[in-house]
């Protein structure tokens, strides 16, 4: 049995304690036996080991080998360029892993530093780390709960548990035994949990668990045990690196041994093989991808999404499920009066000032019988329910401060969870002993509000515009049930007049009441949430609500925003039902469930894992400590920036600065665009490198000399490849970016024709380049190598202009739609011409000035790739429309 199922006396007996606490000697013994009341971290990896691990990737090892070989043969510029890229990549990986370990530090910071205890009946203040099971702890408002406690005494003790349960409203605690064997944390009203915060009242509790055995400790264990999933881009680039590295090694070895068999010099053929390796490795790719992700992250900050881990920028484009919290994310996190029952009629909360006398009295009661207040900026301070009622009155001109001057509060009976009511008593002298809308006369008036079922027990009349009438309890309860069925929290308001101030005693002041009306409240959906959910559906993404709220409220909000399109009972389940469901059955049903209510931390983790097991790529939102394990496990963890705890933020990949679901959808749009652009960059770099490889490989077999010098290849890779690729990553989004399904997380980077494109475009480049070489040598042109060098550079620039869209023509997109690329292409052409025509650069790049005719040949022939790719896209568009 859990301790919440036991009575106070049973708890004391099991923990071998008493209402005076344990002795000092027993406390020392238990501390030695149980260990300190602290969260334990697993042994950390040394920073140097964490950094060196970044160099273990196969592609990185090949790049390092290429850097060493380049240095040995004197190509130090290659060595420096490759090493800069490798170290930058390692630094980014190290930073991400180091940040991931910060989640435990944030969790430890939530723990209380000191605790007030009774030992042998003597109050003591001790370090919270010295608490042991059986200790009696004193709790007052403003204190952090230092361990898990069973409540022994509660004087209106109210605790804020949102970090653990997700419930926004503080919970009032009591000592009653709870017999249910499967209560979620949010319903355990006789328990206090480590790391939560007492907001009101005072109480005592007995320690039931310390350290890693607390609920906070269980979450810490899950955070440390969980592994972060790699993003699709990380997986694709890892596979790509392995394939490209193996291919490079195979080609270089084949060229080297074939050259030896043909009788060529071992040194010369080795230089050719190294040149091939340098040509094949897309050195610019890691840098361009990193810069593209960084620029995307910067754009997302302007849209209220702060990216903590760069790969998450692109990974958003693969999301198939978004598991979102309700409060504050889909809703405004602000209780609002939505419906009223006054004078026998149900009214929507329309902000009209044309009110009847009875309605005016009703709103007067809402303003006066209220402990909330407004600050100098007009923001409501106090309990969310009270604030909603105060706002409803304020919007109709009933100002609490003004009314209190006319009807000052003279006495009150505070709210009590047992009575479920509160009462305030006011002087009526300012209204001549009678309020508008009321035929009841007296010098004082009491307003009582609270749960309707409790209010009806003390109410015998209903006030109407015709005067008081006997209350029809059944019809009032039917109205209440109809409002509650819409997910509204219903509060009843009643009154009674007095000739003199009554005793502030509940049995006296809360009897023979006259019902004024009902107010139904709800935390309403954000206006943009419905549109954002519709965008998700159009993009093939399934939104799912996971909340700590009541299932009925969750269902209503899910219907309003479009998450729940069909009111299928099986689409909504509670944490209790989920707990009882076998894993196999849950995995069969998980794709049909749209709303989870009253869930525990490990259940959020269970939901994420089940969806991932079904092949989905999951984004999970959260703000509490209880969300941290699921945020870390999810493919994309999204923490709330306003309401989120430090623990949730440290475990996440991205933080919503406005806590808004619509911001996630904007980030998904940006992520899809960035992946499209990275794919274009890969397509450009691979097809360009393919052209270089085919050119170098085929020349010897065609009886042609080696067409390019190592310096030519380095120039092409760093300038002709690198600069346009970077500008290509800035390409604006294509029109259908949110009207197509998410790409499969298992999709290869070569999918959808990229591999075939790389081969045929590379071959076409080689054919054009080698044709220029053969023609120039045939006519005895001494500038043939400069012509080959220039033609290949221009071919790649034609390729980058055609590759801007996989479907649309460049002329449809508009040449000026990516000004950065247009400028970069122009600048690259200028730089290339400088290597040809600036005398000081000729010996460096081993070039010679070309004649106007030779340059014209290079420009004309280099357009072949551009028009060939445009022709391919035209054929594909015609086939699609046929």
Describe the protein.
The protein is α+β, with helices and mostly antiparallel strands and 882 residues long. It has 33 helices and 26 strands. Strands 10, 11, 14, 15, 16, 17, 18, 19 and 20 form a 9-stranded mixed sheet that branches. An 8-stranded mixed sheet has the order 8-26-25-24-9-21-23-22, sandwiched between helices. Strands 1, 2, 3, 4, 5, 6 and 7 form a 7-stranded antiparallel sheet that branches. It is elongated. The mean pLDDT is 84.
Helix-and-strand structural type: alpha+beta
Sheet having the most strands: 9 strands, mixed
Q: What would you report as the Rg, rounded to the nearest angstrom?
A: 36 Å
Name the overall outline: elongated
This entry's quaternary arrangement is single chain
Stretches where pLDDT is under 50 for at least 5 consecutive residues are: none
Mean of residue pLDDT values: 84
Number of strands: 26
Percentage of residues in DSSP E strands: 15-25%
Count, helices: 33
Distance from N terminus to C terminus (CA atoms, Å) equals 69 Å
Helical content band: 40-55%
Give the SSE map:
Elements: H1 8-14, H2 24-34, H3 47-52, H4 58-72, H5 76-100, H6 102-108, E1 114-119, E2 122-127, E3 136-140, E4 148-160, H7 162-165, E5 171-172, E6 191-192, E7 197-209, H8 215-225, H9 232-261, H10 266-280, H11 284-302, E8 305-307, H12 311-315, E9 321-324, E10 336-342, E11 345-348, H13 357-368, E12 373-374, E13 380-381, H14 384-394, H15 400-406, E14 409-416, E15 421-427, E16 444-450, H16 452-456, E17 459-464, E18 467-470, H17 473-485, E19 489-498, H18 506-509, E20 513-522, H19 527-538, E21 542-547, H20 551-561, E22 572-574, H21 575-580, H22 583-589, E23 595-597, H23 601-613, E24 618-622, H24 628-633, E25 636-640, H25 646-651, E26 654-656, H26 661-701, H27 710-728, H28 754-778, H29 784-802, H30 810-813, H31 819-837, H32 842-845, H33 852-881
Parallel strand pairs: 9-21, 9-24, 17-20, 21-23, 22-23, 24-25, 25-26
Antiparallel strand pairs: 1-2, 1-3, 3-7, 4-5, 4-6, 4-7, 8-26, 10-11, 10-20, 12-13, 14-15, 15-16, 16-19, 17-18, 19-20
């Amino acid at each position: 049995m859990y301790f919440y199922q036991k009575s106070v006396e049973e708890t004391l007996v099991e923990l071998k304690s008493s209402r005076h606490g344990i002795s000092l000697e027993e406390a020392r013994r238990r501390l030695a036996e149980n260990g300190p009341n602290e969260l334990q971290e697993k042994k950390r990896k040394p920073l140097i080991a964490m950094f060196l691990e970044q160099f273990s990737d196969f592609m990185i090892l090949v790049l390092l080998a290429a850097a060493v070989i380049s240095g040995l043969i004197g190509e130090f510029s290659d060595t420096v360029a490759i090493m800069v890229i490798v170290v930058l990549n390692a630094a980014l990986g190290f930073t991400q892993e180091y940040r991931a370990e910060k989640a435990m530090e944030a969790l430890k910071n939530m723990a209380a530093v000191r605790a007030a205890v009774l030992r042998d009946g003597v109050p003591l203040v001790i370090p919270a780390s010295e608490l042991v099971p059986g200790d009696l702890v004193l709790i007052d408002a403003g204190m952090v709960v230092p361990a898990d406690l069973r409540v022994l005494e509660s004087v209106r003790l109210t605790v804020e548990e949102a970090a653990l349960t997700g419930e926004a409203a503080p919970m009032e605690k009591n000592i009653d035994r709870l017999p249910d064997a499967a209560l979620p944390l949010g319903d355990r009203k006789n328990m206090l949990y480590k790391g939560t915060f007492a907001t009101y009242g005072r109480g005592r509790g007995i320690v039931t668990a310390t350290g890693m055995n607390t609920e906070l400790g269980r979450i810490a264990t899950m955070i440390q045990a969980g592994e972060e999933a790699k993003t699709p881009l990380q997986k694709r680039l890892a596979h790509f690196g392995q394939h490209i590295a193996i291919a490079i090694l195979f080609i270089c070895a084949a060229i080297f041994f074939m050259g030896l068999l043909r009788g060529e010099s071992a040194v010369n053929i080795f230089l050719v093989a190294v040149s091939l390796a340098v040509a094949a490795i897309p050195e610019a790719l890691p840098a361009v991808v990193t810069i593209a992700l960084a620029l995307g992250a910067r754009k997302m900050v302007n849209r209220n999404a702060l990216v903590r881990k760069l790969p998450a920028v692109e990974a958003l484009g693969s999301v198939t499920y978004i598991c979102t919290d309700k409060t504050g994310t889909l809703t405004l996190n602000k209780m609002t009066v939505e419906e009223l029952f006054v004078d026998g009629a149900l009214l929507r909360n329309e902000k009209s000032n044309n009110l009847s006398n009875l309605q005016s009295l009703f709103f007067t009661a809402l303003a006066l019988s209220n402990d909330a207040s407004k600050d100098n900026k007009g923001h409501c301070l106090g309990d969310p329910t009270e604030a909603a009622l105060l706002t409803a009155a304020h919007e109709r001109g009933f100002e609490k401060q003004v009314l209190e001057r006319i009807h000052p509060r003279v006495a009150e009976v505070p709210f009590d969870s047992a009575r479920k009511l509160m009462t305030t008593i006011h002087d009526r002298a300012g209204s001549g002993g009678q309020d508008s809308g009321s035929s009841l006369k007296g010098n004082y008036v009491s307003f009582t509000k609270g749960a309707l079922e409790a209010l009806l027990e003390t109410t015998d009349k209903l006030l109407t515009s015709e005067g008081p009438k006997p209350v029809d309890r059944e019809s009032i309860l039917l109205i209440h049930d109809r409002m509650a069925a819409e997910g509204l929290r219903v509060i009843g308001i009643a009154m009674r007049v007095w000739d003199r101030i009554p005793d502030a005693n509940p049995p006296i002041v809360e009897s023979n009441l006259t019902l004024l009306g009902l107010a139904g409240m709800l935390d309403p959906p954000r206006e943009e949430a419905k549109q954002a959910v519709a965008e998700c559906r159009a993009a093939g993404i399934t939104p799912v609500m996971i909340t700590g709220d009541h299932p009925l409220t969750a269902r209503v909000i899910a219907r309003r925003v479009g998450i729940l399109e069909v009111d299928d009972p099986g689409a909504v389940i509670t944490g209790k039902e989920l707990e009882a469901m076998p894993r196999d059955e849950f995995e069969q049903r998980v794709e049909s469930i749209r709303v989870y209510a009253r869930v525990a931390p490990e259940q959020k983790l269970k939901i994420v894992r089940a969806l991932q097991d079904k092949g989905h790529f999951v984004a999970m939102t959260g703000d509490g400590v209880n969300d941290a394990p699921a945020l870390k496990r999810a493919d994309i963890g999204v923490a709330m920036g306003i309401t989120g705890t430090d623990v949730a933020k440290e475990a996440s990949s991205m933080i919503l600065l406005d806590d808004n679901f619509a911001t996630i959808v904007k980030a998904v749009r940006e992520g899809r665009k960035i992946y499209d652009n990275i794919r274009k960059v890969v397509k450009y770099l691979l097809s360009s490198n393919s052209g270089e490889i085919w050119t170098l490989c085929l020349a010897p077999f065609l009886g042609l000399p080696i067409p390019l010098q190592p310096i030519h290849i380095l120039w092409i890779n760093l300038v002709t490849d690198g600069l346009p690729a970077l500008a290509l990553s800035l390409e604006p989004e294509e029109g259908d970016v949110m009207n197509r399904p998410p790409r499969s997380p298992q999709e290869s980077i070569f999918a959808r024709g990229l591999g075939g494109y790389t081969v045929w475009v590379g071959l076409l480049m080689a054919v054009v380049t080698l044709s220029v070489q053969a023609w120039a040598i045939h006519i005895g042109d001494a500038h043939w190598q400069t012509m080959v060098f220039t033609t290949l550079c221009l071919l790649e620039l034609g390729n980058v202009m055609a590759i801007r869209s996989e479907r649309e023509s460049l002329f449809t997109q508009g040449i000026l739609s990516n000004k950065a690329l247009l400028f970069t292409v122009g600048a690259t052409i200028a730089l290339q011409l400088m290597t040809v025509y600036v005398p000081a650069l000729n010996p460096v790049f081993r070039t010679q000035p070309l004649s106007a005719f030779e340059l014209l040949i290079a420009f004309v022939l280099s357009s072949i790739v551009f028009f060939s790719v445009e022709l391919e896209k035209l054929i594909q568009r015609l086939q699609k429309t046929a």
